[in-house]
UniProtKB/TrEMBL annotation, chains A, B:
Residues 12-67 form the HTH lacI-type domain. It comes from Rhodoferax ferrireducens. The keyword Transcription regulation applies. Residues 13-57 form the HTH cro/C1-type domain. This is LacI family transcriptional regulator. The lineage of its organism: Bacteria, Pseudomonadati, Pseudomonadota, Betaproteobacteria, Burkholderiales. It holds the Pfam family LacI. Keywords: DNA-binding, Repressor, Transcription, Transcription regulation.
Length: 339, 339
């Protein structure tokens, strides 16, 4: 075994295969590329044995550079610690693999500068498409969108004009949460959300408030509670401090994510407020963990495990030269397991 | 803007830059590669302007193929849905980025065949190093290990001889869990684990049982409960069925992961068993979610967010030609927040 055949150090070359088989490099190259007509069956077999013996793998990157084609797709996600993004990443990886692509996953930590660093690194890697999960506006992203890079935005729409999008109908999800609380005769519902604005937050809050008002409750009777930072757990915990004393807690609250709801619940627990008895909480996401650890939580469930196939469908249609499209994923209400 | 400059479709070539600047391709190539002595300051400036105007990015892959060097490191993880692996992935990504590398993340779904598919795909991508999180024995992996590929194993040691490893001291973690239960005078402790064996499971169970026996409790008074499948949540839920009736529940149980503990807790809740009052549960991992959603859980905390820097340190030392080493990460007991 020569040093050259050590994976990760450098690929075994055609020359190694040629030497092993006792044929010319050109012959090996032709056979590797499927042109076997000019070689005898015996030569083809000898080259195949040599390829196996020395551990040769055709270099996809080399081919990618020659053909201006690769099998790489990059996903840039805002925060892999967030289980929702981990679920989207897992489903996209599976759908891409089935379509013959390898997914590169990058964590931008919700930072525009890191997002641009990764976009530039991926462009240098001859990436074939981009999946932007909860992206931030950034100069580099604007540049990619303007150049027409094949991009699918997930969860948050492109901040720069019309692009392909897969995500929940956040307005409808917020409305569904409002209906759930109002149907339980809660007349001063609260809404809990991050201070830092995103399109997801904005739409879910808007869907909620519009529906509450449409059902005859004055806007000023909606209790709004927001919290700083980027961890939704911490945001929920901080925002619920607005409810200050236990008797001042609302009888029901919509949290714009399940993670925000977990944060609200922690403060409730520490304050002796019984959830859902004293305060009915409805989240959005429908995390699979709810059944295990948050049986008190009602949630508007978004089918994140089904995002992957939709994302790949839109990417393939962009590669085929079709215009951007949107897939709004349907939601359903998952009621609390325990009351 | 020409079609060539569209990211994801094909990189802008040196020729485009040369045409824009009105100089030869060779001149552009020299300047891009930092050889500016032979060109006038005015030419260098004109090329820099042209690079900016056409959106040229030096192609790292092209360089990688020429220099037998890339800036890519692949992580193959058994299950990204598992929050422990997501945390390890996030910390490794951050440490690699600081060291100037881009991490490719692949989800093997704990399947040896997918692990081999990804190893071969990554070799074709001229990957510089491999981080194997909870790997499975597979023919391809054996091949990579035997060829001396730069690999760091995480959480589970290499199934094929001595390799670099970052992970907890599972035996010591199991012992710590045993001490916690025995110190609370629990004399017939249970141990809950997956039926499907892995080195992590084996070591944690062994550390637990050896310590219980060493402290004078006969081996046959340890209650063993296992469950099928790969989801630790489901495994815990199924395994706890061995405790059948509420009065037959043990007074204390060690679960080989926090996720197993969540599963046990769900059955306890459904069966009216109060945790920790009726049954003290100690997990291993110390998930950050425990403080939010599982305040009843005591856990032997493994510092997963600190794995990344250790993994990168071992990779760099392998690249430097040093022999494989092991980093055992220290644990600490995180007591239940609520009793």
């Amino acid at each position: 075994m020569t040093d050259e055949s050590r994976p990760g150090v450098g690929p075994v070359s055609l020359a190694t295969v040629a030497a092993q088989a006792g044929v010319s490099i050109a012959t090996v190259s032709r056979i590797v590329n499927g042109e076997t007509r000019r070689a005898s069956a015996e030569t083809v077999e000898r080259v195949r044995q040599a390829i196996k013996a020395v551990g040769y793998h055709p270099n996809q990157l080399g081919r990618a550079l020659r053909n201006r084609e690769s099998r790489l797709v990059a996903m840039l996600a805002a925060n892999l610690d967030n289980p929702v993004m981990a679920t989207i990443a897992a489903s996209t990886e599976a759908a891409l693999r089935q379509a013959g692509y390898v997914m590169i996953l990058c964590d931008t930590h919700d930072r525009p500068d890191l997002q641009d660093d990764y976009l530039n690194a991926m462009r240098s890697q001859v990436v074939q498409g981009y999946v932007m999960v909860a992206s931030q506006p950034s100069p580099g992203l604007r540049d990619f969108v303007e150049r027409g890079a094949p991009m699918v935005f997930v969860s948050r729409r492109s901040p720069f004009g019309e692009c392909s999008f897969v995500g929940p109908d956040n307005i409808a999800a917020g409305s569904a949460a409002a209906d759930y609380l109002l149907d339980r005769s809660i007349e001063e519902p609260a809404v809990v959300y991050p201070s830092r604005e995103s399109s997801t937050t904005r739409e879910r809050v808007k869907g909620f408030c519009d529906r509450v008002i449409a059902r005859g409750i004055p806007a000023d009777r909606i209790r709004r509670a927001d919290g700083p930072g980027i961890s939704h757990l911490e945001i929920g915990y901080a925002a619920a401090q607005h409810f200050s004393a236990p008797h001042a807690w609302p009888r029901g609250a919509m949290c714009i994510s399940d993670q925000v709801a977990y944060g609200v619940h922690r403060l409730a627990r520490e304050s002796g407020v019984q959830i859902p008895h004293d305060c009915e909480i409805v989240g959005i996401d429908g995390s699979p963990l709810n059944a295990w650890l948050a049986p008190w939580l009602t949630s508007v469930e978004i089918p994140h495990p089904e995002f992957g196939p939709s994302i790949v469908e839109l990417l393939v249609s962009l590669w085929g030269g079709e215009p951007p499209r949107e897939h709004l994923m349907p939601h359903r209400l998952a009621a609390a397991l325990e009351r």
